[in-house]
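Severity: low
Component: inverse-folding endpoint
Summary: output formatting inconsistent between runs
Steps to reproduce: submit the following structure tokens with default settings.
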């Protein structure tokens, strides 16, 4: 259930690298923006305050909208602008470096606006039930269900709709897709819209489960999501799901058996072993570059 948050962020990474061959380093900051904006809206900008029941849905919606807008800004100034100036933007390292710059800018804007201290939400959603000695948190269980439903719906869009076929055509070859009538300039922003939406959903699930936000909340989740994406296989959505669940399971079990200090060793050690034995990941194809979806 911990892995459900990693799953959603890993799929956001998978979309951009699978379709655009672009590792979007801004994704952890977009995840963070959702939680921080939702907290700011509920705590300061609504008359009911953070304890008001009606403030929660509105705050979460505004947080997700902020994540989507931030993602579209990144698309406009790191991908589209460079494509207009240089042709195929995916052939240059500039978009990658630009997205890293946006990551730093977003984090520092939040630091300037709200400070570096973690901000707490009241624990409104805590509810546990027991199966023998196993304690299952209802919010975590709902997070797992919601994240899998969102990813399944996205997968359905990619596989069955005209928009999904256009996105997969761009993943194969943007120039050929353009010759075949795909409006690349109109379709590419959808990748960033979907990735922003996924980060927004993940940010909301994180806040519901852990009840606090900070300017640095996206860093650890983002690195674990990258590990999950690589474990599952670059460009494979269901591989990202399996990788995210596996990372969450590894983290929980390593804490239980060996302590919190062993989490990174377990996760990154497993990733290293998988890459040595199967460099393409658990469900990835041998081909890298374009055409992974």
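Observed output (run 2 of 3):
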């Amino acid at each position: 259930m911990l892995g459900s948050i990693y799953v959603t962020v890993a799929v956001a990474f998978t979309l951009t690298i699978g379709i655009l061959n672009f590792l979007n380093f801004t994704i952890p900051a977009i995840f963070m923006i959702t939680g921080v904006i939702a907290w700011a809206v509920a705590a300061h900008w609504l008359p009911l305050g953070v304890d008001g029941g009606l403030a929660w849905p509105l705050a979460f919606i505004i947080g997700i909208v902020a994540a989507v807008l931030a993602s579209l800004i990144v698309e406009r100034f790191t991908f589209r602008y460079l494509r207009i100036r240089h042709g195929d933007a995916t052939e240059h390292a500039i978009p990658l470096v630009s997205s890293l710059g946006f990551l730093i800018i977003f984090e520092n804007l939040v630091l300037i606006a709200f400070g570096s201290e973690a901000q707490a939400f009241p624990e409104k959603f805590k509810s546990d039930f027991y199966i023998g000695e196993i304690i299952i948190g209802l919010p975590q269980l709902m997070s797992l269900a919601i994240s899998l439903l969102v990813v399944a719906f996205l997968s359905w869009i990619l596989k069955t709709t005209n928009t999904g076929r256009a996105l997969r055509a761009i993943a194969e070859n943007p120039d050929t897709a353009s010759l075949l009538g795909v409006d690349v300039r109109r379709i590419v922003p959808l990748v960033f819209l979907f990735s922003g939406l996924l980060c927004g959903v993940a940010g909301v699930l994180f806040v519901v489960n852990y009840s606090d936000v900070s300017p640095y909340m996206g860093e650890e989740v983002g690195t674990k999501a990258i590990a999950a994406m690589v474990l599952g296989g670059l460009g494979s959505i269901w591989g990202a799901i399996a990788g995210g669940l596996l990372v969450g399971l590894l983290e929980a079990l390593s804490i239980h058996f060996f302590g919190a200090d062993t989490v990174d060793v377990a996760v990154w050690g497993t990733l290293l072993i998988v890459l040595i034995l199967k460099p393409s990941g658990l469900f990835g194809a041998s081909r890298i570059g374009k055409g992974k979806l």
